[in-house]
Amino acid sequence: MKRNISIFNVTSVVFGLAFLYLPITILVVYSFNASRLVTVWSGWSLAWYRELFSDEAMIAAAWTSLRIAALSATAATVLGTLAAIALTRFGRFRGRVAFSGMIYAPLVMPEVITGLSLLLLFVALNVDRGFWTVVLAHTTLTMCFVTVIVQSRLVDFDRSVEEAAMDLGCPPFKTFVIVTLPLILPAIAAGWMLAFSLSLDDLVIASFTSGPGATTLPMRIYSEVRLGVKPEVNAVCTIMIAVVALGTVTASLMAKRGARRREPAALAAQV
Amino acid sequence: MVAPPPTAAGRGWLTTKVGEMDKPAALLRIENVSKQFGPLTAVDSLSLEIGHGEFFALLGPSGCGKTTLLRMLAGFETPSSGRILLDGEDIVAVPPHRRPINMMFQNYALFPHLTVEGNVAFGLRQERLSRAEIATRVEEMLALVRLKGFNRRRIDHLSGGQRQRVALARSLVKRPRVLLLDEPLAALDKKLRAETQFELMELQRKLGTTFVIVTHDQEEAMIVADRIAVMDRGRLRQVAPPNDIYERPNSRWVAEFIGEVSLIEGALRAGGILDSVFGPLRVPPNQTARGKVWLALRPEKLRLSTTRPEGDLNALSGTVSEIGYRGGVSIYKVRLADQSLIKVALSNSGPSSRLEVSIGATIWVSWPKENGVVLTQ
Amino acid sequence: MRLWQRRAILLFPYAWLLLFFLAPFVIVVKISLSQTAIAQPPYVPVLDVSAGWAGLEGFFSALSLDAYRLLVSDPIYLLSYLKSLTVAAVSTVILLVVGYPIAYGVARSPRHWQPLLVMAVVLPFWTSFLIRVYAWINILQRDGLLNDILMRLHIIAAPQAWLASDTAIYIGMVYSYLPFMVLPLYATLEKIDMTLLEAASDLGCTPLRAFWRVTFPLSVPGITAGVLLCFIPIVGEFVIPDLLGSSESLMIGQTLWTEFFANRDWPVASAIAVTLLGILVAPIMLYERLQRRQLEMFE
Looking at per-residue confidence, does B219 or C295 come out higher? Predict the structure, then answer.
């Protein structure tokens, strides 16, 4: 079927993308503005980046966030992949409905509820709040996203490849390790990336579960933003956008090599 | 593998059905229609007439442009040039939803969110007919395709054959001037396909609607159609009733595409004699061509014998190379003096079935001169 | 796989979720029933298991509905819930109206463009939520870009207060949640067999009618998923109303935040959370069922 490039379709896509990208673009441009005022453009400048890199509290917060994100994303990827395997390959086991409920509910659960309930758990268990409690909280939240991504790949997966391996004498577990795992690796990598960026992004859950000495970057940005627009914050955001953009492009190139044309549907199934 | 084509005698009923002599007046006229997709020419200045009440088949290998032609008739593609006339009116500019032409899609394209009834009534609802009228026409149509009582059934609860009939009912219920069928039976298994072919013909005769079917299955085209257009690379190779196409193909290409054939090259000279590597062979009388031609021989029109046959026959000797048993017939491949193979089909119920030969045996292939066809291209 | 292998695979994520997702809710419920007066842990009552039946009895008799009584008696909370539901409903409708044409446009674009366009829609979703909301402050603040442009175009004479309004909240919600609406819609629209539209056209539908009779009904699963994915989190949204909205009427997420961080009233914050969960449990279950159905279709 030929696809007519209709004016309506082009217009809606162009307007949609403009709406999505214009505010971010403006933010990036103004991070290079010499003036403190948004409305006044007084030439290109890296002043705010210099100021940013001398802001030790901000740098410390960024470092904390990166460590939390890396740790929680790794843990979430392991747990999330195991959960995806259980959901797609184990048929109807006992407790499956409860399990899938616990996987899907966190995806839509308001963050204030998740944050508050995790905090109360840590208090009840008498755990000191700080770096590690945020890691645990973020692992819980992001593992469900990993599950959804990996599961959508496993569902697409041509089972006959596994059957062929077993037919050639490979036992089931080994088949999984040497055939299935390499094939779903792009999805697992994408899951890790998503978990990483979600963790880096989260303000609400971190605010609840963090303690003294473990201020994350969003918490720091939030406290700055509450006091109004600051060009330094524009600079921080620009750096974060650049990192995420770079990461996403790399990841999608990686996924493209693995998944080829199934990509749009798989991406769409992520959310 | 292509199944052996039906014998000429076996299809006598079809000739009576068609009435080849009185060609019906044209309903659809396709005039110099071309369709380009970028650098690719899918249909190449093609002209064709299809008559009232005809069952017409577009036959050709995949990629020959037959589906593109069908989609231009339906209105889904616009010709790059040329005209398509329905009852003398150019319909090229008419969008598909205003054409009195309906199509049955290859994958049926049934609406998964509607019931059987919802699918069949879909087109009538667009005509804003009264509820009662829609209901009666849907009932009539469901009865016609033997789906009475399936009204409320969901599409995904139907078998392949039932879906095919829903699709047929949906496109026929609008009483189109022309029904287009795009590989309508391709998704059915062989047995069901054979049954459905006869159902389609019966339905077409009952309704008198013009059917245009696209198929790559030559056997199917020969069974159902009154006339066949053989297409290749966007052009028409031959347009004729099935038995003409089979018995009197106009080219080696058509002869080889339809059924099985063995070709002997040679030079034609006066007196109905073909000079070939096997020496002079007699051909049917009244040949006008001269020079290099090919003699086409259908397997079932040849005979085999262990000794040189008597009488006024062309005869070539060779050795049996392979014997393939196919139930009703057996196929013998005979290696001739020039090392080429010639195929002979022998009925397993006829007198020749008692032929006792084994592979490697010397054998004679013979035929009366009128059983060959001279092809000039 | 052998049974023990299956069990091992299942055990870790299952145990993790039981401990860090389900158990906390039980604690939230328990705290919400605790005495408001005591703002520091450990909360009264404490379940003393060693005291046996007496301990259990003591525990239950000491549970208090004070926090819930407060929620019902003070209209602030009720208004807060209502505001959240209204904002979520209106935002979701706007998202659907804005997101559908985008998803449709992407799904009908040439095949080889689609991965790129989908990625373009997803990319902002990978950048920080906070950044995306913050970007709008740049635009909407009093000496921001929007006022500047409107004044240059002589549409308005004096700077308008765009920030701290419901308009700003809606802009922020639509902006932040747009990918969540577009992607599920795209996923269903992309799967619709184009020959169905040809069939509709063949049977006499104009393109517009074909859309309403075929495309739209077939995209209902995507609409449901998109609506749930947006509506549920928006009800509990905190960052967007906090940064873009006014402080006059709070959404429930903000109220919970305030009770917890400013008033340090943990039982009331918990009661708010429990009630919010009660409101959202039906849509969450619907969403879960939808996801599970989709998965089971492949089995």
Answer: B219
The CATH number for A80's domain is: 1.10.3720.10
Using CA atoms of B305, B311, B313, B316 in order, give the dihedral in degrees to the nearest 10: 40
Q: What one-letter code names the amino acid at C152?
A: R
Domain C65-296: CATH architecture, name and number where available: Orthogonal Bundle (1.10)
A252 falls within a domain: yes
Name the residue of chain C whose CA is nearest to B96's CA.
Answer: C202
Any domain includes A41? no
Residues 132-151 of A with CB under 8 A from C: 136-137, 139-140, 143, 147-148, 151
When pLDDT is averaged across residues B69-83 and rounded to a whole number, the result is: 90
CB-CB under 8 Å, A124 with C121: no
Split into its structural domains, chain A has a count of: 1
In a domain? residue A19? no
CA distance B105 to chain C (A): 8
The answer to whether the Cβ–Cβ distance between A103 and C5 falls below 8 Å is no
- DSSP per residue over B222-265, as a string? HHH-SEEEEEETTEEEEEE-HHHHHHS-SSHHHHHHSS--EEEE
Q: Do the chains contact at B107 and C204, CB–CB below 8 Å?
A: no
Sheet holding B279-282, edge to edge: B279-282, B273-276, B262-269, B291-297, B373-375
Whether residue B64 contacts residue B48, with contact meaning beta carbons closer than 8 Å, is answered with no
Q: How confident is the model at residue B354 (pLDDT cuts 50, 70, 90)?
A: low
Question: In terms of Cα–Cα distance, which of B279, B265, B270 is closest to B374?
Answer: B265
> C10 in contact with B at a CB cutoff of 8 Å?
no
Q: How far apart are CA C58 and CA A253, in angstroms?
A: 61
Q: Are the Cβ atoms of A105 and C180 closer than 8 angstroms?
A: no
List, for residues B243-289, the tens digit of each pLDDT value.
888 888 888 898 888 888 888 888 888 777 888 888 888 888 777 77
pLDDT of residue C43 exceeding 70: no
- For residue B258, the model assigns a pLDDT of 86
**Partner B contacted by C208 (CB < 8 A):** no
Size of interface B-C (CB pairs under 8 A): 61
- Residue A88's closest CA among B105, C291, C61, C78? C291
Bridge partners for B228 per DSSP:
B57, B240
- Picking from A256-260, B202-206, B302-306, C34-38, which range would have the lowest pLDDT averaged per residue? A256-260
C212 touches chain B (CB under 8 A): no
Q: What is the ipTM of this complex?
A: 0.83
Residue A178 DSSP one-character state: I
B325 or A142: which leads in pLDDT: A142
| Contact (Cβ atoms closer than 8 angstroms) between residue B118 and residue B111 | yes
Residues of chain A with pLDDT under 50: 1-3, 259-271
Model confidence pLDDT, tens digit, residues C153-165: 888 887 777 788 8
Q: Contact A101/C6, CB-based, under 8 Å? A: no
Note the pLDDT of residue B321: 86
Residues 76 to 95 of A: which have CB under 8 A from any C CB?
Answer: 78-80, 82-83, 85-91, 93, 95
Round to whole Å and give the CA distance between C77 and A180: 51
CA atoms of C105 and C21, how far apart (whole Å): 38
| pLDDT given for residue C86 in this prediction | 94
Is residue A30 in a domain?
no
Residue C44 has pLDDT above 60, yes or no: no
The minimum CA-CA distance between C73 and chain A, rounded to whole Å, is 22
pLDDT digits (tens, 9 = 90+) for B121-166: 888 888 888 899 999 999 989 988 888 888 888 888 888 889 999 9
Quote the CA–CA distance of A176 and C133 in Å, as a whole number. 43
- Domains of chain B (ranges, CATH numbers): 9-100+176-254 (3.40.50.300), 260-375 (2.40.50.100)
Chain A touched by C131 (CB under 8 Å): yes
Handedness of CA A258, A261, A264, A269 (dihedral sign): negative
